[in-house]
Amino acid sequence: MRNLFLLICLCCFSCYLSARSILISTPKTSLLLSAPVDGELKFVYYGAKLSEVDVHTMGETEKSKLLAYPVYGLNCPSEAALAVKHSDGNMTLQLKVVKVDVLQQNKAELTTILLKDKVYPFYVKMCYKAYQDVDMIEIWSEISHQEKNAVVLNQFASAYLPVRRGNVWLSHLYGAWANEGRLVQEPLEPGMKVIKNKDGVRNSHTAHAEVMFSLDGQPQENAGRVIGAALCYSGNYKLRIDTDESDYHHFYAGINEDNSIYSLKKNELFRTPELALTYSDEGLSGTSRNFHRWARLHKLANGTKLRKILLNSWEGVYFGINEERMNQMMTDIASMGGELFVMDDGWFGDKYPRRTDKTSLGDWVVDKRKLPSGIEGLIDAAHQRGIKFGIWIEPEMANTRSELYEKHPDWVLKAPERELVLGRGGTQVVLDLTNPEVQDFIFHIVDNLMAKHPDINYIKWDANMSIMNHGSNYLNKEEQSDLYIAYHRGFESICQRIRLKYPDLTIQACAQGGGRANYGVLPYFDEFWVSDNTDALQRIYMQWGTSYFFPAIAMASHISAAPNHQTFRTIPLKYRIDVAMSGRLGMEIQPKDMTDEEKELCRKAIAEYKEIRPVVQLGDIYRLVSPYDKLGVASLMYTSPEKDKAVFYWWKLEHFYNQHLPRVKMAGLAPNAEYRICELNRIDKQPLDFEGKIFSGAYLMANGLELPANHLVDRNKKNDYSSRVLYLEKVK
Ligand code: DGJ
């Protein structure tokens, strides 16, 4: 009998085991559930991949008491994933397993478990999508019913995961505008930890909808067991970690139901966003590598296509756009080897020309006073210089001083009987994306631009306002509490239309900086703007945190001016380059103001970035020394999947005379391989002692290299910053 069981497991091991045990596996992870027909769906295990024998024995010995999707109402003094009010006022649920289905998809296996309330015609389908080429399981629920009248959804998490107690630490991101993606690490203590967002439009300026749980005490980058979780949603979210009197930290993730109680109509399907789960026993960096691989292969638009090196006009000219300046910037970026120029805010508006942030959003016509030859003239100029052209839009918004608002005042979000609360510039408003007419209008902003100018290569899609007015002219009065959810459904449906028609267009998710770094938008966007703060030193902290969940290919990272426009810090160009080169490299500067020497340094850096671009953008990250550990340096590296190439970054964070800095051990190399070292972006008068020398991977991972704390440059060029970028190439 046991052999027969094992045989079944071997034949179709990755998923379905028996009527009772449901094993959901990826190459290196497993989720084990118990799903007896007519019984309750229980959670048994999540972590490293289970062997057949362990699954079998666990089926006999691990008697789980934990529901896989806890519901409210009967014997449930703790938190619930789902809480409803039936049409007759009954507040309880009791779900039983009806059936389990397994569907093979391209590179994934989808297990669905249908649950039905014991009494009411109320259904929940739990969906588990296990990728077969990356270690990620996406979980979501599909809620529906056939009750007479609407059922009110009071709480509707996507998924629940119990994490066994025992010195578990949480890593997550927090921040603010211009200081996004800061890392915080804390032990989980009794009580409830809530991570949430209520912006309405953007959701990652402050907290993030992604977390990591280090299971073996204080988090380590390259050792220890870690569970990672990312809620794939662009709107308001709530992550709850309830550490109660039991042996578990109870983790729930889903849409934030605050002011969003949802009335579910008969036969309507409510699909919650996916919660993506991963596990690694290679520490936080290992978990990041899982997120990054999944992102590139499955979640990010054009995730395996190398990104172009660009110049964006914002910090160079702000609203001062005109043809001459655009042409000059294009000449400059082309001469430095860049591949794309992006014209930012300020190019549009007829009756109300966009000279400041107070007017014109919604009037997406070119301002001929600024650009007499139109966009076509700029595209021609870009092509003459051998580069591509991109453009900025902020399609979800309007200004009250715009032709759009004059024509369609009913298209903006506004509470009835109330004065409009206004956003940026004192005149900005958010369009009502719940309205299909507005969705159509927004789709056509992109579609018209592309129809007229098919050679537009890149769009920067901005969003500079929260929902500050709870009210939709389109939704009826019973549906007003659906606003936040309906807005994001509208947004997603616009994005889907755009992607269907323009799959190859590069689109950046910018939202007043890093407000849209989330896996809800990334299927439709190629990258995001990490922050409006381009200060290289502060970027080290922000990009470090962001790299926990998002790959370098998606992180727009630009070389900007000194003094920096946000922090006013003066950082030497070499350091600014070395930081920007650890993400998707670009420039955000007026090149006209740069010296020839500075341009030459950028030209060299761009040429070298082209060499290392596949390793940075498609490689595996190993974070080595955290800036948050305050050891005076930060360091990370990327290795190619074949481990034949690697790029090592080292940035000094503070400067004291005769300071003792740690010697940084490398990681992720092949121990038996030999690598030649070559410094990139060198400014020192002499090469490093180990320039061109060969070391084994084992030596580099055990000892690292001794890096001089300062640069060997003429006295008048000495300063308090130093950084190094080393390129490693396998010779044997
Ligand atoms: C905010 C963005 O984050 C900036 O990069 C820039 O595009 C401005 N908006 C333009 O208004």
Write up what this structure looks like.
With 732 residues, the chain is of the alpha+beta class. It has three domains: 2-299, Distorted Sandwich (Beta-galactosidase, Chain A, domain 5); 310-618, TIM Barrel; 624-730, Immunoglobulin-like (Sandwich). The strands form six sheets. Strands 5, 6, 7, 8, 10, 11, 13, 14, 18 and 19 form a ten-stranded antiparallel β-sheet that branches. Strands 20-21-22-25-26-27-28-29 form an eight-stranded parallel β-barrel, surrounded by five helices. Strands 4, 9, 12, 15, 16 and 17 form a six-stranded antiparallel β-sheet that branches. The longest helix is centred in the last third of the chain and has 23 residues, at 596-618. The two termini are 51 Å apart. It binds (2R,3S,4R,5S)-2-(hydroxymethyl)piperidine-3,4,5-triol. (2R,3S,4R,5S)-2-(hydroxymethyl)piperidine-3,4,5-triol (DGJ) is lined by residues 314, 344-345, 392, 462, 464, 510, 512-513, 529, 532.
* Alpha carbon gap, first and last residue: 51 Å
State the CATH architecture of the largest domain.
Alpha-Beta Barrel
Shape, principal axes of CA atoms: globular
How large is the radius of gyration? Answer: 27 Å
Kindly report the name of the CATH homologous superfamily of the largest domain.
Answer: Aldolase class I
Helix content: 10-25%
Low-confidence stretches: 1-19
Number of strands: 35
User: What percentage of amino acids are in beta strands?
Assistant: 25-35%
Q: How many domains make up the coordinates?
A: 3
Q: List ligands, each type once.
A: (2R,3S,4R,5S)-2-(hydroxymethyl)piperidine-3,4,5-triol
CATH class term of the largest domain: Alpha Beta
- How many DSSP H or I helices? 13
What class would the helix/strand composition place it in? alpha+beta
* Fold-level CATH name of the largest domain: TIM Barrel
Main sheet properties: 10 strands, antiparallel
Average pLDDT confidence is 96
- Quaternary: single chain
